[in-house]
Design goal:
Layout lengths: L2 E6 L9 H6 L3 E7 L3 H11 L4 E2 L2 H5 L5 E4 L6 H10 L3 E4 L7 H14 L3 E3 L7 H11 L6 E9 L6 H9 L3 H5 L8 H11 L3 E10 L18 E10 L4 E7 L7 E8 L2 E5 L4 E5 L5 E3 L1 H4 L3 E3 L10 H6 L3 E3 L20 H19 L7 H19 L5 E2 L9
Parallel strand pairs: 1-2, 1-4, 2-3, 4-5, 5-6, 7-10
Antiparallel strand pairs: 7-11, 8-9, 8-17, 9-10, 11-12, 12-13, 13-14, 15-16
Helix pairs in contact: 4-5, 5-13, 6-9, 9-13
Length: 399
């Protein structure tokens, strides 16, 4: 027995997800939802989905079991809470929310309803995160000492178009959000590897010098002047980590993780990724294992694959790396879109399976809170010139 899924928002980002939800063997029906009737109709034709809904309110009155929130980031938390209270499971694009009160309300609502909530954090499935989780599980790091992660995305690399698409005529009001309000691509990689969380933070900000006015205090609703922010965190396991969130940077762009332990370390830069140990007996170049290209559907020994699917779609899970466990993905995903370092297919699969089984998914609300709250507090620290601040925590996910 499958589920019925309503997808809210039919913009550019969701185009890579609609085919995956539609193809998942545990999804019986898709309903598309958008306030823009022309865009809604165009996407219904494009994806051959006959069922549509003109608003979230209308969608929540239908028999869908789950709602996928793909709207503007400042709407994620209110819409997720509304859907949960209406009895629907929720998948949300990042971030989970933009204030501590929103996150607190989300955690409370998930507890109260007992429904599935999953944040669509792509970095959880990035090859380096998967590799480091494996090394950590085997004790290869020893005790974690220090981690660093960063998300570099300059405005000149498509962000203007994204902001104008999402914000419409008022795009400047929302465009200048603090970089640390969107830290989850970075924080999630460290948290998902070690299981520890941030407890304290000191953050500094770079006052923007561009003449486009996005980060002028009076231009955005956040009264934010920082285009780049660097935060140093104390972790609950006694280690430290540094997070960079840069939006004006002479760099091609990256989401990147490095992690250092008492016995071994993982380093990743623009040239390559490497595993090293302190006795110098191990130095492994990991590029072959971690580089995303395509992985054959028959790559896992003993797996039986429908050869008609293989022939029709070149037999590969697109955009994946050899270390990613494609053998757990539905065969119906072969040849379908798969963005952000092969993460999209894993995100959809985990959410759908959680809804059907009732099991707690990765990137649940307790994870989501720990991914985003440190950045919200970090921005407050930056406004106070790096003052060390405590980071509230909503605890571990229930067993």
């Amino acid at each position: 027995m499958g589920i019925k899924v309503g997808i809210v928002g039919t913009g550019s980002f969701v185009q890579g997800f609609i085919p995956l939800f539609k193809a998942h063997p545990l999804v019986d029906k898709i309903v598309l939802c958008d306030l823009d009737s022309e865009k809604l109709a165009a996407n219904a034709r494009k994806h051959q989905i006959p069922d549509v809904s003109p608003s979230l309110d209308d969608l929540l009155n239908t028999d869908v079991d789950a709602v996928v929130v793909m709207t503007q980031h400042w709407m994620h938390a209110p819409q997720a809470i509304q859907a949960l209270k209406a009895g629907k499971h929720v998948y949300s694009a990042v971030p989970a929310g933009i204030t501590l009160d929103e996150i607190a309300s989300l955690v409370h609502t998930v507890k109260e309803t007992g429904l599935v909530y999953m944040i669509g954090e792509t970095s959880y499935y990035y090859p380096e995160a998967i590799y480091c989780r494996g090394q950590f599980a085997h004790g290869a790091f020893g005790h974690i000492v220090y981690g660093e992660a960063e998300y570099y995305h300059d405005w000149d690399h498509g962000l203007y178009d994204v902001a104008k698409w999402r914000g419409g005529k008022s795009w400047m009001k929302f465009a200048g959000s603090p970089p640390m309000h969107y830290p989850t691509h970075s924080t999630s990689m460290i948290i998902s590897v070690t299981g520890s969380h941030m407890t304290n933070v000191s953050c500094l900000g770079f006052i923007d010098r561009s003449d486009d006015g996005i980060y002028q205090k009076e231009a955005n609703i956040y009264e934010n002047e920082f285009s780049n922010q660097t935060a140093l965190f104390r972790m609950s396991d006694g280690s430290m980590c540094r997070i960079n969130e840069f939006r004006r940077i002479g760099h091609p762009g990256t989401v990147r993780l490095s992690l250092f332990g008492t016995e071994g370390s993982f380093e990743h830069n623009t040239q390559s990724a490497v595993w090293v140990t302190k006795d110098a007996k191990q130095k492994k170049l990991l590029d072959e294992q971690l580089t995303c290209r395509n992985v054959s559907a028959k790559s896992k020994a003993g797996r039986s694959v429908d050869m008609d699917l293989v022939t029709a779609a070149a037999g590969t899970y697109l955009g994946t790396a050899p270390i990613q466990p494609v053998d757990r993905l539905p065969e119906t995903f072969i040849g379908l879109p798969n963005g952000h370092c092969g993460s999209h297919q894993f995100l959809v699969d985990d959410f759908v399976k959680a809804c059907v089984s009732g099991m707690l998914p990765p990137n649940n609300i307790w994870d989501a809170a720990r991914y985003v709250i440190p950045g919200l507090v970090a921005h407050e620290s930056a406004k106070k010139d790096g003052l060390l601040l405590d980071i509230p925590d909503f605890g571990d996910a229930p067993l």
